[in-house]
């Protein structure tokens, strides 16, 4: 039904200016002002992402966006250098998974990819994931 249809994802934030700064300056993404005060982000693979302000925003309790990288540790170091905290989950939250290391990286095993989670200023959960996923 949708095999030839273009699709995009969107999620809300509580402060569009903070989001624009975080996604554009901190993460270095191509952020454009969209319709009705929303943000449009063009990702490297041509996918578009829309971020909109919502006065009663509730952060997503799941990962809303995964960034694939060839080197999770290097990417985490770069995020940390930009002030992004990557150790957001304690081992009790990830009880059924391998423990995170001091940087917040869950090291993969034969069944799981290497991944590190972090949050945007609106507390939505994002992640960097090993390219071998």
From TrEMBL:
<protein>
    <submittedName>
        <fullName>VOC family protein</fullName>
    </submittedName>
</protein>
<dbReference type="InterPro" id="IPR029068">
    <property type="entry name" value="Glyas_Bleomycin-R_OHBP_Dase"/>
</dbReference>
<dbReference type="Pfam" id="PF00903">
    <property type="entry name" value="Glyoxalase"/>
</dbReference>
<dbReference type="InterPro" id="IPR004360">
    <property type="entry name" value="Glyas_Fos-R_dOase_dom"/>
</dbReference>
<feature type="domain" description="VOC">
    <location>
        <begin position="5"/>
        <end position="131"/>
    </location>
</feature>
<dbReference type="InterPro" id="IPR037523">
    <property type="entry name" value="VOC_core"/>
</dbReference>
